[in-house]
User: Fold Cytochrome P450 monooxygenase from Polyplosphaeria fusca.
Amino acid sequence: MIFATTSTPSFTNVISTITATEIFVLSLVILLVFSWYLNLASVNAPFAGYRSWFEPTFLHKSGKFWVRRIDGDTLILSNNYLEELRLFPNTVLSNAHAQYQNIKGKYTYASVVLHSILHTRVLLQQLTPKVGFYALRSKAAFDEAFYSLMPRSKEWVEVDIQSVARSIVARMTGAVFLGAATARNEEWLNISIQYPMDTFQTAFQLRMFPNFLHPLLARLLPSRYRLQGHRRRAGRIIQELITEHQRKVEAGEKTEDTLLEWMLDNAVGTEGSLEEMKSRQLVLTLASIHTTALALSHAFYDLCAHPEYVEPLREEIESVTKEFPSNEDFVNHGLQRLEKMDSFLVESQRLHPPVMMSPQRVARKTINLQDGTRIPSGTRIAFPSAAILNDSSVTPDPSVFDAFRSYRKRQVPGEKFNHVRVQTGKENLAFGHGKQACPGRHFAVAEIKVVLCRIIGEYDVKYWAGQVRPRTYYLDENVFPDPWAKLHFRHRGAGAEAASGKGGVAV
Ligand code: HEM
Assistant:
């Protein structure tokens, strides 16, 4: 109890009976109410989220509303605002600041993303223009490790596909960022899978509490101490790579042309320091590994739920492999010919996106929109990407998994190069949109197709008896499939290997 119960309580009596704990609880309540009031005051829009489950968000479809999150609110805008907002540079509307807030970057060592954009420059200026070159390299890493990750058994074997997908993607990404040897380095592979997990764990635990408690709580979280360990080990690995690169450059020897090397050669000022290079590589693991591995896992869950798509996809894989038998041609020309697979991936991501709100931005300056809306500096904004994709005016029968929707749209004259997985648009926000749309998406889609070709080509896959599509879990705006879900795989025999885009790589 907070107050004393004398018949005529004096102020001094009351104060003297308040304990330290009660003062703490009282301050907490005052701060919560105060921060709630401050948030309410910024943009005049209704709130959704912490009201009842039947909050009619569709009423706000073409307008704006707030979604509450304990660590700060987000203003959700209709995609009608996208045309106007998508061209703002990150100095006005910043994705990096939004992600920094999401992952509680101050406590998860991510401040490098606010210092410079070398990590996005390397993807836009090196990885994407040379995506075939790098996809080929990542395919080699995948093919090399394939049977150590997937059982080559003709009997049905239970496979934890999410874990296998993470291991595959870690190798494929590692080969491109840090080189072929590092893609085999179990220590790095382990860091690149665990670092994102411990970052998300730290961030989600902090996000359950108001911001002012974070400095204290962050000191108590085991996941944050694990991050420190990963960072020490990553530092040693990256330092060796930096030293080796410098030696080669000084000796005039050919370098491996990794993305780390490009960053070292193009770094300005402190961007090239070990501390920044290490942090940047680790931030890139956050962006690249789990997103891609989740997309792959969902593709297999959808294939099991809709086995009628296996044969058409296999036929397409076989015909493209026949047409482009060498690895190089397969990657450079064949992948984009996998139109049914591309469409399957669009549909899989539509129903199972990794996040419900995309793109997300933080206003770094006050913006006045054409309709008179004023977005004060510091406001978090986001677009309801999942709701848009599942709106029947955008996707007819949105609850139906119709894998070849985009494929059919592409058959209309003039539409061949539209409706593809890498494309972003007002109604396709899975990779964000505008100037800051995902810079790794061309590589991600190439990776996913390479892996799907090989696994769908070589394996049968199914749920075990009675199993249905794994449950989906939601954590704020993030979406995860059941982490314990398993699938059954069976190798189709040596004959199937030749028709899976495997190419000439010895395994
Ligand atoms: C299926 C896999 C992936 C999905 C669904 C995905 C999704 C996204 C989304 C929604 C954004 C925010 C874009 C925006 O705000 O407009 C983003 C940003 C980003 N992505 Fe991806 N991504 C994937 C794979 C990758 C890969 C493989 C890489 C690296 C090779 C990567 C690197 C990045 C980076 C660095 C950013 C931040 C860009 C910035 O701050 O300007 N992503 N991604």
In short: The pocket of protoporphyrin IX containing FE is lined by residues 95-96, 119-120, 123, 284, 287-288, 291-292, 295, 354, 358-360, 430-434, 436-441, 443-444 (CB under 6 Å). The chain is about 50% helix and 10% strand. The longest strand covers residues 487-491. The chain has two domains: 1-41, 42-497.
